[in-house]
Write a structure and sequence with these properties.
The complex is a heterodimer of chains A (205) and B (646).
Chain A (H helix, E strand, L loop, with lengths): L22 H29 L8 H4 L2 H26 L3 H31 L9 H30 L10 H26 L5
Helix pairs in contact in A: 1-5, 1-6, 3-4, 3-6, 4-5, 5-6
Chain B lengths: L31 H5 L4 H30 L9 H35 L8 H19 L29 H29 L12 H33 L13 H34 L6 H14 L15 H29 L8 H24 L1 H7 L3 H31 L1 E2 L2 H27 L16 H31 L1 E2 L34 H7 L1 H17 L3 E4 L4 H17 L3 H21 L3 E4 L10 H6 L1
Helix pairs in contact in B: 2-3, 2-4, 2-14, 3-5, 3-7, 3-12, 4-5, 4-17, 5-6, 5-17, 6-7, 6-8, 7-10, 7-12, 8-9, 9-10, 10-12, 10-13, 12-13, 13-14, 17-18
Classes of the chains: A mainly alpha (205), B mainly alpha (646).
């Protein structure tokens, strides 16, 4: 009986397609291109209003808590590392290792979301920044809230995949599904890097 | 590696593969359930077409009511509010519920056949797109039956008119939510088509051998995927302003309504190319077929289509020349708009080159295609007149704009889509529309259309503004308006005649055999109507106009097909996807949640969300499974007993 130390399936080439790229992967990339335009529009709205602040618009530097947000950014980045490990594991057929990596990804994702919930409530109650009382509030909460919603959807997807893996139906053959999830998760992470830079850090330049 | 060493890095020995979670596997092949759970691109295409035709007629009635009101000055058939609702719904209906789904009908039915595929890449996602489109159409129109009324803020929903301050009614919320669902449906379908065209082409079908209609499907799909997010966010921001008191367009708190215009038109301009590129693709199939010549300048026609798609993102502010953007912006957009006329003109020259020296067969589809070239050109001329910003200062918001876009949308998109219905009807239904009645309906439409919209060029230049429910009798606009109304009713008769003929043909028309037009592309190589599995043997493509090559190299192709038939059969047969109910369930959830959200009803919004999530989860859990079929020598599906013998 041969061992399964190396992958027996080719996870990088699908001979049944015209390009060799698996259909699900191409679908996810095309969807992410669309999601790029989606976040691009929200970020543009924020940037435009940043250039035209009305009188009375709060100063972001008086509101933002950079150490907190840097921490949550770092956590989200680490979650992407865990996600990459999960994909790697299932491509080698190692479901147990994938499960562990998925769980840590979920855990870090939840920490990020928790930090965001704390941040939002801190801004509302202690800094007086609400979604409706200023243009900064409107653009900030809508943009970061939409991103947080994307993270939440990712966490739900990851959790579903995690529990599904206990039914024995997640094997090396299903690595493409985990990889698609990974692409989505990395995208959400990259969008956050852009948001953190352009919304938070840019105020301090 | 020593097999006796157990390491945690060695994968566990897989148990026998567990079956996916299947709650219900619909298997009816006929009847209502079979249509509601179908994943067959041909059936989905037909359903898109039926809904599109229904809404086209609804939009047409809305237009006739508008024209009745404007037939004479100071008319009082409609109140101002009713008039606002009618022009809002006429625009919204025609663009999102008629032209786009009619294009989708052909993308769905024809494109997989043109690339030699058995279906699209994600059949259940395809069904989801259809049902979500229906949900969006319902929400946009539900206001007609409710006290708040149908949407009445214009099809472009300018802020701050659409804010809660000026239109507190839910009519605008229906518009926002309906458009969001329509956007989701369009994006999902476009993603599906992109993957299908790039990844599921028959062997030998390189990109530069693709039929032009398939190319235009691909470019249109990219436009949808990249431009719809802009309107999605614009609508989200509007919804946030209306529901949660944000300030995106709220001037008193720093909002800038001009932002709405930018975001809307960043979507809106690519949208009009989404409406016209499929039409250009259709014309690029019909002209070669009925001129009995290959398309002139195929690579240039394809490249021009791509250029139009690309440049389409660079011209949006030509809808905003009179908003005071400043000289630099205005000049830049003016230039870009003039530039986009170039690839369009190039296509026209290539179409003329296709016809030139051809052996013309003046069948009904050809009449519509030739009408397209001429009418679209007129629309293009008035368009390029708009591109000069100083001229546009006079023309903007006048009837000149209405003349322009109806020439490109009716004379362009609709003519091509009406041509496509006649052209592909024999393929889809095995019957041909009568030449006499087809041509009669063409002429009625052609005359009615021109009588309606040509006078509007003069009305516009003589100062008649858009979107006003009545006009005074001493402006000099009376006769042109009356002529336009008469024309509109002639057009209405023409359209009614056209569809009456088509419906009659469906039930009683002359039956045709395969390939009635001596076609050039692969969709004509199969049975009419096509079998469920499309191709008995996946074709191998040797050249552009793949079917034309097949017809002129019969022996080579016959040998190839025999070899491939054997290979496919020995690999288990033809793979067909299972039907599924979950895409429909998910769409129902979106419908329920969408309507509830318009009314701020948290409980029912959650119900809708739960149904949506349940639909998605069960969809994922049932897996993308299918079954295999084998065929006898006549292409009939062998039953299960025969299958067991293999």
């Amino acid at each position: 009986m041969s061992s399964h130390a190396t992958a027996t399936l080719d996870h990088h080439n699908d001979p049944t397609t015209s390009t060799g790229i698996p259909n699900k992967k191409l679908l996810m990339w095309a969807f992410l291109a669309s999601d790029c335009m989606f976040f691009g529009t929200l970020i543009s709205t924020h940037m435009i209003y940043r250039l035209h602040p009305p009188p009375g618009n709060p100063d972001p530097r008086a509101v933002f808590d950079i150490p907190l947000t840097s921490f949550s950014t770092f956590i989200l980045l680490m979650s992407s590392l865990m996600m990459a490990l999960a994909v790697n594991a299932i491509q080698k057929g190692n479901v147990r290792s994938m499960r562990f990596s998925l769980l840590t990804t979920i855990f870090f994702g939840l920490i990020f979301l928790g930090c965001q919930v704390y941040e939002f409530s801190h801004f509302v109650h202690d800094k007086g920044l609400t979604i409706s009382n200023s243009i900064l509030g409107s653009t900030f909460y809508t943009l970061t809230g939409t991103h947080g919603l994307h993270v939440l959807i990712g966490v739900i997807w990851l959790t579903a995949m995690y529990f599904y893996s206990f039914t024995g139906r997640v094997t090396e053959k299903q690595a493409i599904d985990v990889e698609s999830m990974g692409l989505y998760w990395h995208f959400v992470d990259i969008v956050w890097i852009v948001i953190f830079t352009v919304v938070y850090l840019l105020e301090y330049l | 590696m020593d097999a006796t060493v157990k390491s945690s890095f060695i994968a566990e020995q897989p148990k026998a593969p567990a079956k996916p979670l299947v709650l219900w596997r619909p298997s009816a092949k006929t009847g209502l359930i079979s249509w509601l759970t179908t994943v067959d691109h041909k059936r989905i295409g037909i359903m898109y077409g039926l809904f599109a035709i229904f809404f086209f007629l609804v939009g047409g009635i809305e237009a006739l009511l508008i024209r009745l009101q404007l037939a004479v000055p100071n008319n009082d058939i409609l109140t101002a509010h009713q008039y606002n609702t009618l022009f809002t719904m006429h625009g919204t209906t025609m663009i999102f519920l008629a032209v786009m789904p009619l294009g989708s009908a052909f993308f769905n039915f024809i494109m997989p056949l043109q690339i030699g595929a058995r279906d699209v890449a994600f059949p259940r996602l395809n069904a989801f797109s259809l049902w979500t489109f229906v949900a969006g159409a319902i929400i946009v129109n539900i206001g007609w039956f409710l006290p708040e009324g149908a949407p009445d803020g214009g099809w472009f929903g300018y802020a701050p008119l659409t804010s809660k301050t000026f239109i507190p009614r839910h009519s605008i919320d229906f518009w926002v939510m309906g458009l969001q669902l329509l956007g989701v449906a369009s994006i999902a379908a476009a993603l599906n088509f992109i993957v299908t065209i790039i990844n599921m082409r028959a062997p030998g079908l390189t990109m530069m051998r693709l039929p032009v209609f398939t190319w235009m499907t691909l470019i249109t799909s990219f436009l949808i995927v990249l431009s719809f997010p802009a309107i999605t966010i614009a609508l989200v921001e509007l919804m946030m302003d209306r529901q949660f008191g944000t300030n995106f367009f709220e001037v008193s708190n720093g909002g800038m309504p001009i932002l709405w215009q930018h975001l809307f038109w960043i979507f809106g301009h690519p949208e009009v190319y989404i409406l016209i590129l499929p039409a250009m693709g259709i014309v690029s199939e019909i002209l070669p077929t009925f001129a009995r010549k290959p398309l002139f300048g195929y690579p240039i026609v394809v490249f021009s289509g791509a250029c139009i798609g690309f440049l389409g993102f660079a011209v949006w502010s030509h809808h905003m020349f009179t908003t005071g953007m400043g000289t630099v912006a205005t000049a830049a957009f003016s230039l870009a708009t003039m530039a986009i006329a170039v690839p369009t003109g190039v296509k026209i020259f290539n179409w003329i080159g296709t016809i030139w020296g051809g052996h013309l067969k003046m069948r009904t589809p050809m009449m519509f295609a030739l009408g397209f070239i001429w009418m679209f050109m007129i629309g293009g001329f008035s368009g390029v007149m708009h591109s000069a910003a100083p001229a546009d200062a006079q023309q903007q918001d006048s009837y000149f704009v209405i003349a322009h876009f109806h020439y490109v949308l009716i004379g362009g998109s609709i003519f091509a889509l009406l041509a496509a219905i006649h052209f592909w009807f024999p393929l889809m239904f095995g019957r041909k529309v009568s030449e006499f009645w087809g041509k009669l309906s063409f002429w009625a439409i052609f005359v009615g259309f021109n009588v309606t919209f040509f006078p509007m060029h003069f009305l516009g230049l003589n100062g008649m503004p858009r979107r006003t429910f009545t006009y005074d009798g001493n402006m000099g606009w009376n006769s042109a308006n009356l002529i336009a109304t008469v024309g509109a009713f002639i057009l209405g008769v023409g359209i009614a005649l056209y569809f009456a003929v088509v419906i009659y043909t469906f039930f009683k028309g002359e039956k045709t055999s395969r390939d009635p037009w001596d076609g050039r592309t692969l969709e004509w190589s199969i049975d009419t109507p096509p079998r469920e599995y499309n191709f008995a043997v996946i074709p191998t493509v040797h050249a552009r106009d793949a079917f034309w090559y097949e017809k002129h190299h019969k022996e080579e192709i016959a040998k190839e097909k025999a070899e491939h038939a054997q290979a496919e059969d020995s690999h288990g047969g033809i793979h067909m996807p299972f039907q599924s109910v979950w895409p429909l369930v998910a769409s129902v959830g979106a419908l329920v949640g969408g309507i509830a959200a318009c009314y701020h009803n948290l409980a029912w919004s959650l119900v809708g969300l739960v149904i949506l999530l349940a639909g998605i989860f069960l969809w994922a859990l049932e897996g993308a499974d299918g079954y295999h079929i084998h065929l006898d020598k006549d292409g009939n599906i062998l039953d299960e007993d025969a299958h067991a013998k293999h």
